[in-house]
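[User] At your convenience, examine this fold.
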Amino acid sequence: MLIRSRCVAASSSTPPSKSSTSRIALIRVIRRLSGCAPDLSLLQKLHAWIEAPRCLWPTGLDSIALRAADTLGSGKPLDGRTRLLLRVLGPPPPQEIQSRIERYEAALHADAGRHLIRAKHKHAILQRERERCSALAAEWRAIKAAFDVTRYRVRDGRIRRRYMQNQDLRMDLQLTWTNENARFFAVFNTFCHRWNLDGMKGDTPVLLRSAAHVTPFGTWLFVPAYWSLDPRRDFFWNEIRALHHSRSLKKQGTKLGRNQRERRKEAMRAKRLMEQAVARGLKGSRRDDWVMRRLNWDVRTEPRALRRLLKDAL
């Protein structure tokens, strides 16, 4: 389901989601504020973000929106920290990027992120092996004998391993063995680590899958330890690259960096020459021709090339 389809009207027969509620409340406040209200531009930026796909949000913007709407709706100003958050919040991605991410989100909800994986057979083969593995089943029975595993099952009967953060951010390494929950997940995570599992659903092992996801900070690609990696055969690589490149710089590299520095130097020189031309009283095409001659450009160069260069000096 697309993010915009979740933003239903308040009069809908289905209860509105938190995002929908915050969006509606924010719109009401924006409409009541005058055009010169000091926080209006911040609220408009927040509203634009609420309209964007959730997977791009840097934090819980729906909660921020509800708080801002309640505060301003009661006639109080935004507190300094909320205003600071909204000031450091950058502009939302352009609509073209949002549309691409929305299509990705729709496929993600339909297929749990597996639509970008081409070599699904690698998972299927090992999943069947794990389901038939007597050693794995014996270890799982031992865990059930040592712990009341029903305490850790979610609604669908699944127990998931604890997810780990990157490198030195791993809070799971700070183990409190006297805590029953910590002891269980220490044992369960170690069990999942041995057998490359995401968890257990009832008594059935759930093998880790490869996955590709868009996150607020980048494109996340997960390849399980058991997976023999061949990126172009295993993933729909062009689609992953297109998703990532929709938000990244178009090109990067040592040579490009050198070229950009040279262009920047030329742009600053063109800016100085333009200022000199204006001081001489030159206007229009005479001014442009005067600047381009001193840049040693071909006389046939279009003036719009000079205008593009001057933008790099801003």
Notes: The first strand starts at residue 158 and ends at 160.
